Each structure stands twice: as C-alpha cells, then as structure tokens.
Amino acid sequence: MAQPQDLLYSKEHEWVKLDGDSATIGITDYAQNALGDIVYVELPKVGEAIAQFANIGVIESVKAVSDLFTPLSGEVVEINGLLENDPAAVNRDPYGTGWLLKVRPTKPGESKGLLSPDEYDKIANQ
C-alpha cells in the first residue's frame, strides 16, 4: 500500500503530519494491520513533555500489547478523545479519525531525521 504523501514516518511505524506549530501523530496502516483488532489505547496526558522516540503509551489489540513511541519531541496539546470509547477507529482509519495525539514540537529539526513516504514504503513492504 502506498503511504499518504503529506506525512513523515518513523521506522517504528508511526506517522507525523506537520501543520504550522502543531504535529499530529498516529500509527501507520501497516502497524494497525499487524496488531489486529485494537481494543485499548493509552496515551500521555495533555501538557506532558515527550522526547523523540520515547515510549509514550501502549496500544492493545486482541493479539498483543505494544508500546507506542513518538517520532518527535514536544508538548502534548491534544489527545484523540474518540479512542477512549472507540479504539478500533485506529483500525478503520489510521490516517484520519484514528490519529493518536497532537504535539507542539519543541525541536523542529528532528523531522529531518524521519522517513519520506517512499523510504517508509521500503520498510513496510519488506
């Protein structure tokens, strides 16, 4: 599957959409597919400072519990409240309604170390 072209990606299968002084973060279609039916998502609290590639929570599926990592450092400004009652939104629409959190990046240069859609495709399609 070709990745959305307006996003950046991590090797840990997260995506980032940069929008001014905000960045939306989620997991890729590849990741949600590998996890299976998602039943629970634990995310950091609004106002929390997070560091690039640090563990920021967990995502639980019927198959496994997996750590979530952040592709950028920043301050959490919003979490996707929909996921509290409907964590399967990540399965249905990982690049849309299934986003995880929004951060205000504190080290904007970090995005230069993330993968382009084509670079991520090579990892996801191995």
Number of strands: 9
Secondary structure category: alpha+beta
Shape: globular
Per CATH, the architecture is Beta Barrel
Helicity level, as a percent range? 10-25%
Roughly what is the average pLDDT, rounded to an integer? 95
What's the structural domain tally? 1
Strand order, largest beta sheet: 1-2-3-9-8-5
Supply Rg: 13 Å
Tally the helices.
4
The H-level CATH homologous superfamily, spelled out, is RNA polymerase II/Efflux pump adaptor protein, barrel-sandwich hybrid domain
The N- to C-terminal Cα distance equals 12 Å
Oligomer: single chain
Largest sheet: 6 strands, antiparallel
- Reading the helices and strands in chain order gives EEEHEEEEEHHEH
CATH topology: OB fold (Dihydrolipoamide Acetyltransferase, E2P)
Please give the CATH class.
Answer: Mainly Beta
Structure description:
The protein has 126 residues and is α+β, with helices and mostly antiparallel strands. The chain has one domain (8-124): RNA polymerase II/Efflux pump adaptor protein, barrel-sandwich hybrid domain (OB fold (Dihydrolipoamide Acetyltransferase, E2P), Beta Barrel). Helices cover 18% and strands 35% of the residues. The strands form two sheets. Strands 1-2-3-9-8-5 form a six-stranded antiparallel sheet. A three-stranded antiparallel sheet has the order 4-6-7. Strand 1 and strand 2 (14-19) form a beta hairpin. The protein is globular and about 35 Å long. The chain starts with 7 loop residues before the first strand and ends with a helix.
